[in-house]
Design goal:
This protein is an alpha/beta fold. The protein has one domain: 3-Layer(aba) Sandwich (Rossmann fold). 26% of the residues lie in helices and 30% in strands. The protein is built from 4 helices and 10 strands. 38% of the residues are buried. Its EC number is 3.5.1.1. Keywords: Hydrolase, Membrane, Transmembrane, Transmembrane helix. It comes from Marinobacter iranensis. This is Asparaginase domain-containing protein.
Length: 159
């Protein structure tokens, strides 16, 4: 069984109309997995609905506690991309699990989102990687503590 925790971020953002700003809506992770013919073997728990720029150390502690207390050995976390490396580092103290964080540069609800690819890639990585904490984004896997987001290039890279 794979435990999926959702925390918000761009992947779950919704844009209502020209007068609105993006807001974080319900997670589409279950729907997106179903589109990929993955219908069981996972449970989804919504931890928070935050833009990752608004995440605090207390939020990261809550994620760490939830991951540490869950019974699953494999954990997928949907997360905003801006502070994903910080949360990954905060999870390094959790042992005996394979933890993969993933997100999207464009909301999953948008036609040209990288969300579907990133979810499928993270799903596969989660099942193949040894215990540890990783970020799986845009076809690459990065170990926690050795990755950063390059804001200008809009991609993750090793540090």
């Amino acid at each position: 069984m794979i435990e999926i925790f959702t925390t918000g971020g761009t992947i779950d953002k919704v844009y209502f109309d020209a007068n609105s700003e993006f807001e974080i809506g319900d997670s589409l992770i279950g729907e997106l997995l179903a589109e990929s013919n993955i219908r069981d073997g996972f449970a989804v728990t919504g931890l928070m609905r935050k833009d990752s720029l608004e995440m605090t150390d207390d939020d990261r502690a809550a994620v760490r506690e939830a991951v540490g207390q869950c019974g699953a050995e494999r954990v997928l976390i949907t997360h905003g991309t801006d502070t994903m490396p910080e949360t990954a580092r905060a999870l390094l103290s959790v042992t005996g699990k394979t933890i993969v964080l993933m997100g999207a540069m464009q909301p999953a609800r948008m036609r040209r989102s990288d969300a579907v690819f990133n979810i499928g890639f993270a799903w596969a990585a989660l099942q193949l990687l040894p215990h540890g904490v990783y970020i799986a984004m845009n076809g690459e896997v990065f170990e926690a503590g050795s990755v950063r987001k390059n804001l200008k290039a809009q991609r993750f890279e090793r540090t």
